Amino acid sequence: MASNERKIYDVLIIGSGASGGWVAKELAEAGMKVLMLEAGPPRFPNRDFTEHSWQYQMKYRGFGDQRELLVDQPIQRLCYACDEYSHQFFVKDDEHPYTFPADKPFMWIRGRQVGGKTFCWARESYRYSDYEFQAAKRDGYEENWPFSYRELEPYYDKVESFIGVSGSREGLSQMPDGKFLPPMNLSCGEVLAKRVIEKQFGWRVMKDRVANLTVPHNGRPACHYCGECQRGCHTASYFNSPSVTLPAAARTGRFTLVSDSVVSHIVMNREGKADGVHYIDRVTKAHSEAHAKIIVIAAATLESTRILLNSRSPRFPNGVGNSSGVLGHYLMDHFTVQGAGGEIASLKSPEREPIGNPCGYLIPKYANTDGHENGKFLRGYRFSGGVSQELYSQAFSIPGFGRTWREKVRREIPYHFSIGAQGECLPRFDNFVELDPETKDPWGIPVLRISASYGENEHAMAKAMRRDITDVLDAMHVKNATPPNENLSVFGKNIHECGTARMGSDPKKNVLNAYNQVHDVKNIFVTDGAAFVTQGCYEPTLTLMAISVRAADYIIDKYKKREL
Amino acid sequence: MMPPTNEDPEQDGLWSSLPSDGGDSDLSRRNWVMTIGQVAIALGFSGRVQAETKDTPPLPPGLYLPSTNHLGHALMSSARLHPIPPGCPTDYIRPGLSRLRPCFSLHLNLQ
Prior knowledge:
heterodimer; A: alpha/beta; seven-stranded antiparallel β-sheet; 13 helices; B: mainly alpha; 2 helices; 19% helix; disordered N terminus
């Protein structure tokens, strides 16, 4: 048995990603003794980071061993960021099975390691507004979050100030400004798009707000624009928990991190409180228990919910936190309409534009904001894309070799405009996860059966997205235009899965209270995306970090008062 | 204004013809870089920053501190090159063997 079996920590955190990292930092800095269990292994910059490796340094020139990828990572490889350079940041699918109905395909993209998915996230960091937190007040659909933007605002401030988010102040009520580092520059194509789209449609075109440092910040150097963030970052110039929040926790001397520990369930005591967790060594498969006064689950949305569902006992026969019957329900993931774009002929040039800018442009949500009400669907969507030279696609499209070929490739480098839309997925009870009664993973834990699909609202929204995208392509006068895809993205593909253990004041309708505390068991908290009530159309990571800090504040206060 | 076509970056005029980021200063990028370099040398900066203090406990495996040796990571990566099989007919390219040829557009070209 593990040596820490008898030790009782103040708090045990499951998961070391964006949420767990913040909770660990806040609680350790407040004086609490923190144990963190991470299911995956540690990653090491010198071994695992490849952001500065060139194609010719890779065995398969960046294309990867397709046969091996098909066997080991048939689902993960469908993620844009999982390739020969970065596949190590994604799980092996055969070791991490899950099931779904044949007519409801689901892509579960997972990063199981110290740092979770923060190595390969897209770093896009947008605040939600009351268009998200109080959405039900506007349109009457489902529930509001149990707090308003104003209540979360100081936590957004704290997160942005610490991790560093570059962005421009735009003064938009539907996407509030924050504590930003200087924004990156628009490419010349993006400048053109901004002029055209703002004039013709009245929509704001801006640079993405991203957790990349544009200036040195809190001991971390500024981004050097190598442009391959999903492969790791030696300089820690974008936020990931292993170089930002977790070291802060470790500096307190009150933080213990144990990797390769796959938590199967919460161990409950006779009083109905959590006593600790049961976990299995990822490599040896040895079983152990660890004990703490408070349990924080931050294992990423679906894994956190799996742990709760699998924590069954006579007192909690359907899993801990499931007296309402909504645990596992209201799963959301953004849907996208992609594939649209074309060539900007006027920007074709033999001169190379500086490359490496690790983000593109954004057009914030307008649908169903004040003055833009839409009777055909609820909620809204935003556009994003990139406008840049396409040297490599040009190279792939021209046959030949040698000096003549290189000259051909560089003679007139095309300039490409791309645009896609990402829309809000409504929280629906019939989008849910449950434990599969038949299938177990290699550690003997029942896997999730995921049943989710997009509904009428998403399809109605997609029609509007396609119409808008087509109008933008026309306005941009692009050549060789490709229209937006007819199909919506597969559920899960956007890796923004949220919900399944939502927050709310009413214990009969929600799993967590307004501070991420399980209604049924007051010393268990769930701080990741599982807590989300709605997800808007923006990336969830900044918001889940903010609610994690808010939950940590609450835990510190209640712990001091001995109320947990 | 035409973009410079001179392929020798060490010749004056190529870098110094670029407008500065601010656009309202006579300081060229080359001059700016040279000034920074001179200051760094004068201060005895060796390219590495001691980020940890002696009192700080060692980080657990998997956590790391930012490296400030930006370019070094790219240059040091030659050790990771896939070995060239003996007698291989492929014309493998090795980094660092050819001279730097910066290619870029000027702001004026984009107007």
